[in-house]
């Protein structure tokens, strides 16, 4: 990271307590910490078995180094809590997105393997059709279903990771809303102490700006809730298809 003095003096969050900025002026903070989130331990990220989100965040990113940095710890509340929440979100989102991509690539590989196997067996069927119908017909269906089930399992894991990413976003929104309420309480007290020095025009302008920011935040939350609902629906559909293939495999084995 940059030298401590430069980090403390130039980071975007230092502007939050100056002028008319509010706790919602956080795009610069998100961009700043997104650029500094780093991935590591790529083998664990791409593991086929389930890996808890917390383990991915602590072992596969530099999350702990970022939030424990001197520049972050020197901030006053509630700015420090907000910055740590944003660091947590950016590190979690980056590692989950990378893991989802790895699992989707694995699903594509399994799909290609399934397709190649079907092609090879089709050629063999042309040469030994009569014998294969008696000896290997059922085995072919079982192998095809097994490969398909493996592919669906990989896709299901990818969707589950995406759902966890959405959950992480929801948790961040909750944390930011709590911080916003705390900040509003501090801001309200400050306004009460300084209201004798403010003009009516200044108060009206501040109110309009706050309402606009509130409406923008509300629209963003509604958009993310729609995305979460879509992911859940896709996951349920994939799970139903997975169960259907299990039943077909069981019938073929019998």
Q: Supply the number of helical segments.
A: 10
Portion in beta strands? under 5%
- Average pLDDT confidence is 79
Distance between the termini: 62 Å
Oligomer: single chain
- Evaluate the radius of gyration: 26 Å
SSE run: HHHHHHHHHH
What general outline do the C-alpha atoms trace? elongated
| Biggest sheet overview | none
Total beta strand runs? 0
Percentage of residues in helical conformation: over 70%
Structural class: mainly alpha
Give the uncertain stretches in residue-range form: 1-9, 15-24
Keywords:
single chain; 254 residues; mainly alpha; 10 helices; 81% helix; disordered N terminus
Give a written overview of the molecule.
The chain has 254 residues and is mostly helical. Helices cover 81% and strands 0% of the residues. It has 10 helices and no strands. Helix 2 crosses helix 7 (79-127), helix 7 (79-127) packs antiparallel against helix 9 (137-194) and helix 9 runs antiparallel to helix 10. The protein is elongated, with a radius of gyration of 26 Å. The chain starts with a helix and ends with a helix.
């Amino acid at each position: 990271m940059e030298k401590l003095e430069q980090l403390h003096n130039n980071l975007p969050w230092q502007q939050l307590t100056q002028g008319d900025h509010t706790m919602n002026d956080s795009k610069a903070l998100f961009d700043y910490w997104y650029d500094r989130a780093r991935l590591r331990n790529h083998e664990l990220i791409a593991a086929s078995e389930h890996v808890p989100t917390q383990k991915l965040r602590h072992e596969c990113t530099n999350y702990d180094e970022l939030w424990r940095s001197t520049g972050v710890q020197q901030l006053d509340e509630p700015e420090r809590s907000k910055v740590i929440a944003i660091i947590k979100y950016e590190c979690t989102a980056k590692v989950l997105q990378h893991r989802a991509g790895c699992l989707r690539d694995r699903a594509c590989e399994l799909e290609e393997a399934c397709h190649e196997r079907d092609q090879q067996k089709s050629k063999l069927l042309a040469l030994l059709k009569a014998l294969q119908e008696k000896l290997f017909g059922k085995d072919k269906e079982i192998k095809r279903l097994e490969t398909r089930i493996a592919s669906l399992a990989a896709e299901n894991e990818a969707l589950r990771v995406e759902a966890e990413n959405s959950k992480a976003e929801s948790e961040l929104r909750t944390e930011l809303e709590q911080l916003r309420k705390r900040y509003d309480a501090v801001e309200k007290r400050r306004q009460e102490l300084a209201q004798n020095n403010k003009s009516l025009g200044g108060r009206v302008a501040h109110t309009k700006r706050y309402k606009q920011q509130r409406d923008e935040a509300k629209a963003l939350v509604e958009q993310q809730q729609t995305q979460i609902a879509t992911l859940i629906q896709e996951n349920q559909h994939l799970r139903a298809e997975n169960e259907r293939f299990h039943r077909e495999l069981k019938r073929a084995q019998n």
